[in-house]
Predict the 3D structure of the following.
Amino acid sequence: MPQDRFTWNIKTLVESYEKAGHANRAWDEPAKRALTEFARARSRVTETNEPWGQIIATNCDLAVEAGCNDPMIAYLHTRFSLDQTNSSKVFADAFCKAAQEMQQSSYPSIRKFYATLRAAEQLKFVAGTNTPTEVHHFRHLAATQLAVFIADRSTPVGEVDDACQDMFKLVERNNRQFEEFYRSIEKPLFQNWPKESVSWLLKGQFYIKYAWAARGGGYANTVSQEGWRLFSERLAAAETALAQAWELNPKDPRTAVKMMWVELGQGRGRSRMELWFRRAMELDPNSYDACNTKLLYLEPKWHGSIEEMLKFGRECVESKEWSGHVPLVLADAHDEVPLYYLEKSDQATYWKRPEVWLDIKAAFEKFFWLNPNKPGWHHNYARYAYWCEQWDELNQQLLQLGPVNYDYFGGKEEFDKMVLLAKQHAAPDAIGDNK
């Protein structure tokens, strides 16, 4: 229940703050306001338009300015208040400092878990394709703390769900760590929550990933006989677990999406995929995951064609029922085509095709019509306009970027190059607007 979860979050945030040794009348009021609002957000009890992120940021700023040195406030300050124009390394250093201080504190394991998780995430983001020792260190700390609170049956199952999903994402590209993590939680998960759909969903997710680890990501003719055997065996285990999750809770769209993944591997027929896709979208008409999974299913290397991919992408734009990020699936389809299905000689000219730009434009116009308060996505639209050499649109998007994430464009030098080209190619009236 949301209220029970809120009570638990207040206990592990506000009450823990009062016992952590950093309370002080000079900053207690804003610190507790920030922690209470974070508890509300974690418990899903905020109002529809409640600016909870801003409330946390404002009060963290006030507490820190007053001299607050509490590690939980330091963590929230990094997450919600740190200037977004800072480099990714500045964020990584701040998260690492907060995580290290949290480890030495009396805060409960759930709080130590998230502090170390975010530190590992940010360090990995900075490292790019590399995974330095420090990333593994914080991943290990996160897994250790998660094992502590998942053994406590009083932990709300919603918190278990969120934490395990975040940990899955953290280690999803490392098969060994992914398996080690799941093996460490499986026993307490089913001891404490055997009749919760979440436990079975997590098991199904693990076995899907475990199946693909055995198969590998190559074409069918590169998979060994043993790889196929393990792939089939593990997908069957995933199917059984997900069927149990669906029986316990046929209202969770995530289970339907994961069943689509099972069908992707088993290949029993498109009608089966469409059944689970329909179930997912009926439960959540904004399910980008469901649409993205269907797009993958329709790729030529699996069960479809480029034409079917683009047709479905256009359906995502034209639908009157689907919203959220769903229209952007059409842009995703165009990302995949040159990357995987064109000769190198054709890749460079793909984005110059008029029909490609018409699709990109339609996708983003529908997206912004549905989501007028998503300014960060102007970065994405600007980059597509640049690739497609749509200079007037690029100039318009540059005006709407807000704080620029230079890393997204390949660094400040690349961004400045793009801006210069946009100005050089702009219509005379647009040049004046963009000076």
